[in-house]
Amino acid sequence: MDDSSDRVIADAAEEWEVRESRTPFQGRVTGVRSEEVRMPDGGWARRDYQTHPGSVSVLALDDKERVLILRQYRHPVRQRLWELPAGLLDVPGENPWHAAQRELYEEAHVEAATWRVLADYYTSPGGTDEALRMFLATDLSDAQGERYSAEGEEQEIEIARVPVPELIRLIQAGQLHNPTLVTGTLAVHAALTSPGGLDALRPPQAPWPARPFEA
Q1: Catalytic option among 106, 154, 158, 166
Q2: Contact 140/85 with Cβ under 8 angstroms?
Q3: Is this prediction's pTM over 0.85?
Q4: Strand pairing of 158-163 and 86-88?
């Protein structure tokens, strides 16, 4: 068995040689990139992946430790999925915290007085370069002003608040499938039950090498 006790367990930046890179498709937000990458044996292999500007999501936790979740239709999987409020970083260099505040307001008409970084991750690193920063929002209140005028799938959004233990039960039962909701639920449970609690999480302006931003 490999003993990892003396190893640094952390992801590290690395870039293999690419001899050809082209974009056979570019949509309004995402595209497809096709590249020839040198393998460890010296050969070359093609890797096709979706290019993506990046995303933010918000796990909004109320004072009863209930998570605010949304349900909306997702056409690629032909299902209505329960999810966390989320959105694209479609403005280059946009501060992800500001984007997260906007998404919480637009999708749930909720504001939060306290923000922390809950998790940073790549949504599907074998098939897309999408990086996502998930925020934890607490000290919630109803937003002021008029509600955001929704479009597309967001016109039929449903909203619920569910206790963390119930979400964990539903995940384990195979009833919830959105990766951001699954990741966020397990991450906030870990934070709530760790010695440092929520205060051990990073501040909302913590650096994010995957998608550098202006403060």
Answers
A1: 154
A2: no
A3: yes
A4: unpaired
